Amino acid sequence: MTKYYLFTIIFLLSSGLLEGQQSALITSKYFPDPPVEFGTPTLSIKENRFATYEEIMTWIDRNISHERNASVRIIGTTPGGREIPVIYLSNGSAGPKIRVWMQGLLHGNEPAGGEALLFLAREILTGETGKNYLDNMDIAILPVANFDGYLAMDRRSAAGFDLNRDQTKFADPVSKIIKKAFIDWNADIAFDFHEFQPTRREYSTVGNKGASISYDVLFLLSGYMNIPSGLRRASGEIFQKEAEQVLDAHGYTHNFYFTTDVSGDEIVLNKGAQSPHSSSTSYALANAVSMLVETRGIGLGRTSFKRRTYSVYLVADSFLKSALKHKEELLETIAEARAETISGGGDVTVINEPAVCQSSVNFIDIETGDLITLNLKTKDAENMSPELVRPRPYAYVLEPGCAREAEILALLGLRVEELRHKKKLRAESYVITDYQESSTEWEGIRQASVTAETYSGSRVFPKGSFYIDLRQKNANYAVSLLEPEAVNGFVAYRVSLTSMGDTLKIHRITRK
Ligand SMILES: [Zn+2]
Questions:
Q1: Alpha carbon of 264 to ligand 1 centroid (Å)
Q2: Rounded distance from Cα 330 to ligand 1 centre (Å)
Q3: What fold does the segment set 2-29+52-383 form as a domain?
Q4: Rounded Cα–Cα distance for residues 434 and 501 (Å)
Q5: How do residues 212-239 score in pLDDT, each as one tens digit?
């Protein structure tokens, strides 16, 4: 075994993959630091390290807490014993106002988002544009969503979960704390700031020593079809577009965010988000305009940290400027989306499929430092087609055994009514006609993938059943989690247990 690891390490070193820290050549050629003084927790430290929990909390206390337009609330405590602060910025003036949610460091090893949001909060409170922002917006900032992970410089939480894959199963207590704060805030627009890993094994065959993604910023929009189309459009056409113009003006580079699959010799890109378990999609299901933003950072330590921090700041500040500029239009788009959902929405897209296209992406050749443009096959989840559609029900009813499902839906801001007496209803029920369990475990579960057929009939629901009327703002969470084939839904993530031939304990009410 030891020999094998030694070999692997030598291989990785020789292929440049473990260099991680980008070379001085690449730093000076593509990613020089901006001449900005931040005064933020980590960038105030001269040594090559990141700010501690105590340093961050002290910084917030000294720079934010005592300002007239700020209040800092502790929304909960992590399993590691760290308090989770949210900074609320408001001048208390009359509305209508846009309610903004911004968060960083959901993944602990992606520190630029947290640093930049602290800088942004301070700028809003003391800078010139702040008054205009706070006359038109109330802003909630969660700078360090995953404090335990951050202090360990680990992507995951202390309990070992990926908090950006946990927003439908809520296996981690921190996921629940964050979601409750988000839902309580009732955001109109919501942004989640991450960092991506520039050098990956998938690009080891590009050039002699592999390649590194060349962009400062990558944008992740959700194309998930249960998000009202007006919200999806606004995230790209207003927020992304205008942030790109700001980045261009500062000489920062950008593209869409992608993950990579390798099939044979071919590198295939996955563009766009479509997963309710992740924030870009999850936040939008609460009928908010939402986006996830990635800066080039994982594995770089403090290299280019000023630039990474500044690029997040430029994007986050541009989002606020866009919200200001398009305030009336945005409030109208969001109100329309909410009204559409409350009045019964469109059909439910249970499964959607990304379009396939070609896209050009720039990489840096690690050996030469030159730019390489690759034209790659791309699965584009910003452009989806429905693969499995069901009419939107009027309500769902869950049998009394579904307490965990009911609890999650309530956490997601849905009104869940518990039947006080048995009730006879005409319902559509699901019978499981195919059931497969994953052979490998992921986050402590073996995922299920099923097909189901529906049948109608009268059914008596016992006292203690859960009734979820869909005429409510957050109904899109219910349709995205309760349909049995849904990709990150309750059946897939074993919140709802079932097996071949079962009738599911989740039922659809298709008429009043
Ligand atoms: Zn991340």
A1: 27
A2: 27
A3: Aminopeptidase (3.40.630)
A4: 8
A5: 999 999 999 999 999 999 999 999 999 9
